[in-house]
Design a protein that fits this description.
Radius of gyration: 24 Å
Low-confidence stretches: 1-17
Number of strands: 6
Number of domains: 1
Shape: elongated
Helix content: 40-55%
Order of helices and strands: EEEEHEEHHH
Structural class: alpha/beta
Mean pLDDT: 89
Number of helices: 4
Largest sheet: 4 strands, mixed
C-alpha cells in the first residue's frame, strides 16, 4: 500500500504476513483384536498390528506429514519469500480390544493402563511432526533473499527437508530410548 504524504513524497507500507502453521488433531484409526487372555492379546497385536518402516509389526504406529506452500517476490536483483503456510497432519493406528467384557478385571485394568501409556507415546511421535512444522515456519524469517527465485526455492526446500530428516531421526531415537513406549508404561502385564 502506498500513501502520499506530500507532493512527491510517498510512504510505502509493506504488509508482512508471518508464517502460518496448521496442525490439526491426529486422526486415530483402530484395528480390532479379539482375545480372552493376555497372551492372546499380545499375539493379536503381534500379528495384526501396523507395520513400521522396517516391516515389523508393532502394537501402534503414528505417521505424520508436513507440507508447505510459499510465495516469493522477484525483484531486479533478488528474490525473497513473502509468505509461508505449513501444515502437519498425522494418523495414529491403535489396537481396539473388541471382546473385553468377559475378561478378568485385572487383565482389563492392565489393558487400559497399557493403552493410556501407548497413547502418550504415540502423541510424542505426532508432537515431533508439529515441532518440525513450527521449525519450518520459522524459515520464513530466517531465509535471506537469493540472487534468483530458483535458488531461493532450492535453498528453502533443502532447509525444510533437512528439518524433516532431523525430526524423523528424533522419532527413531524416541522409540529406541523408550523401547517403543515400554519405559513409559506401554506394556501389557499378563498373568496367564
Amino acid at each position: 500500500m502506498m500513501k502520499r504524504l506530500a507532493k512527491g513524497v510517498f510512504r510505502i507500507a509493506l504488509l508482512v504476513v508471518p508464517a502460518v502453521v496448521h496442525a490439526g488433531d491426529v486422526r486415530v484409526v483402530y484395528y480390532d483384536i479379539s482375545a480372552s487372555t493376555g497372551r492372546q492379546l499380545i499375539h493379536e497385536m503381534e500379528t495384526r498390528g501396523p507395520l513400521d518402516p522396517q516391516g515389523k509389526r508393532v502394537p501402534a504406529y503414528t505417521i505424520w506429514h508436513v507440507t508447505w506452500n510459499y510465495r516469493y517476490q522477484s525483484g531486479p536483483e533478488s528474490c525473497k519469500l513473502t509468505d509461508l503456510t505449513v501444515e502437519v497432519d498425522g494418523t495414529m493406528t491403535l489396537p481396539r480390544w473388541v471382546d473385553s467384557g468377559t475378561a478378568p478385571k485385572s487383565l482389563v485394568q492392565s489393558w487400559q493402563s497399557m493403552m493410556a501409556a501407548l497413547r502418550v507415546h504415540e502423541d510424542g511421535h505426532y508432537a515431533h511432526g508439529v515441532e518440525a512444522a513450527r521449525e519450518i515456519a520459522a524459515l520464513r524469517e530466517a531465509t535471506p533473499p537469493a540472487a534468483d527465485c530458483a535458488s531461493l526455492q532450492r535453498q528453502f526446500n533443502a532447509e525444510a527437508t533437512s528439518i524433516l530428516d532431523k525430526y524423523a531421526a528424533l522419532d527413531a531415537k524416541y522409540d529406541q530410548d523408550t523401547r517403543h513406549g515400554q519405559t513409559q508404561g506401554a506394556i501389557l502385564i499378563v498373568n496367564d
